[in-house]
From TrEMBL:
InterPro entries: FTHF_cligase, FTHF_cligase-like_sf, NagB/RpiA_transferase-like. It comes from Arcobacter roscoffensis. GO terms for molecular function: 5-formyltetrahydrofolate cyclo-ligase activity. Its EC number is 6.3.3.2. It is an enzyme of class 6 (ligase). Keywords: ATP-binding, Ligase, Magnesium, Metal-binding, Nucleotide-binding. Transmembrane segments: none annotated. This is 5-formyltetrahydrofolate cyclo-ligase. It catalyses: (6S)-5-formyl-5,6,7,8-tetrahydrofolate + ATP = (6R)-5,10-methenyltetrahydrofolate + ADP + phosphate. Belongs to the 5-formyltetrahydrofolate cyclo-ligase family.
Amino acid sequence: MNVNHKSDFRKSCIKKLEFSSRFSKFYKDKIIIKKLENLIDKSKAKNILLYIPLGTEVDTKPLINKLRKNKNKNIYVPFMYEDSFKIVKYRLPLHRKKFGIKEPNNSFYKAQKIDMAIIPIVGVDIIGKRIGFGKGMYDRFFDRLGYKPILVFTQLTLCKSDEILSEKHDIQADYIITS
């Protein structure tokens, strides 16, 4: 795999996402959130890892707020920790941290085993492996997790390579949900 090729693909996807997020983002978000709700119901996932979105990512905040009202669901989000992250229960207030990412306060609460993880992507390669922002945080997290929850990738508009750009350690989706 050519690292420059992966980097060029990442840059082109980010440009596509920035352009896409200017047009019909609210409408695309609603479509994707509805698909996520249906998948969560169908899978009967109880412990769900979501993300707090950046501007070009699917806005998961309405889904987080809806699921938090359900007493049978536990919502977790990533909390940057060392070279990866740990999962913490979603709660307010949120604070802007490294890379402009918002996070709740740190928690020493031991999270439940997650059933499903909803993960933003920059793109995917031909075999459905995630191309992210290039920090490897999600890859390291899932490599260290010790079990595999259902992995769901989200993106406003699918950006897919027609070749293999991933490496062995890159995570692969069970589902990819776009508008």
